[in-house]
Amino acid sequence: MVYYFKSRCGQYTIYMGKDKFENEDLIKYGHPEDVWFHVDDLSSAHVYLRMKPDMTLDDITEDLLLDCSALVKANSIVGCKKSEVYVVYTRWKNLKKTSQMVDGQVGFHRPENVRRTKVEKNNTIVRQIEKSKEERHPDLYAEQQERLRKIQQQKKEQYKIAQKKKQLKKIEADQEREARSYDRLFNPQNMTAVSDQKATVDSSAAEEYEDDFF
Q1: What is the DSSP code (8-state) at residue 18?
Q2: For 33-71, how does the pLDDT look when each residue is reduced to its tens digit (9 = 90+)?
Q3: Percent of the chain whose pLDDT exceeds 70
Q4: φ/ψ of residue 118, rounded to 5
Q5: I need a surface site. Which of 52, 88, 121, 144 has the fewest CB within 10 A?
Q6: What is the pLDDT of residues 159-191, one digit of tens each?
Q7: Taking all residues of the chain, what is their mean pLDDT, rounded to a whole number?
Q8: CB atoms within 10 A of CB 40
Q9: Is the distance from CB of 57 to CB of 33 less than 8 angstroms?
């Protein structure tokens, strides 16, 4: 079972597993847009934020960060009793899982990409978020594969568009080069007037006549 919530602004989905076993599936079948949250140095739920495509960690607003941090704090057996705790968060794709790790335990491919924030106890915000709580039994694997398929399709379409732009740019460059070459053929500096040609012919003919006469 997975619990789904809506952020206070209603534009983002926040979700978490019921227990450590479901956390394993969430770790395995996340989406590239997902951000993972956990109370630092304490046991807690694994809370995920599903960002919009092309968003980065820098695009997470303070209110949205507070929603996720407050919810993960409230779902920590020890952390929920403290006045404040630190919460760590990173992109789902940065989570690292090895066979030696117990259920729910994770590491990071790049620890430097893990961020840390302090959150104070805020029951008001938690209650607002929990009003939107839904329990579902999703096919996480199928959802992940569908999302990856769409991403791959988008990349193919973007590649086609880029290739088409590249071809059009080449055609325009060829046409411009051909136009410059055509203009050089009719450059006044490379042309001889008909009158000049006639004068040259007449002059040569006169000289030949004079030579023959003498």
Answers
A1: S
A2: 999 999 999 999 999 999 999 899 999 999 999 999 999
A3: 85
A4: -100, 135
A5: 52
A6: 888 888 888 888 888 888 888 776 666 656 655
A7: 86
A8: 15
A9: no
**3-class DSSP state of 195:** helix
Output 23-26 pairs: Cβ under 8 A, ≥24 positions apart: 23/103, 23/104, 24/103, 24/104, 25/140, 26/2, 26/140
Kindly state the tokens that stand for 44.
């807690």
pLDDT over 50 (residue 107): yes
CB atoms within 10 A of CB 57: 13
Distance CA 199, CA 204 (A): 8
> Shortest CA distance to 123 belongs to which of 85, 49, 73, 61?
73
Q: For residues 102-136, b (16+ Cβ closer than 10 Å) or e, as one string?
A: eebebeeeeeeebbebebebbeebbebbeeeeeee
- Give the tokens for residue 169: 């740019």
What residue ranges in 12-127 does DSSP mark as E strands?
13-17, 34-39, 47-50, 84-91, 95-96, 107-108, 115-120
Determine how many CB atoms are found less than 10 A away from the CB of residue 168: 10
- The per-type count for the chain, helices as H runs and strands as E runs, is 5, 9
Query: Length of the chain in residues, anyone?
Result: 214
Pinpoint the alpha helices (H) of 122-139. 123-130
Sign for the pseudo-dihedral over CA of 121, 125, 127, 131: negative
8 A C-beta contact, residue 120 and residue 83: yes
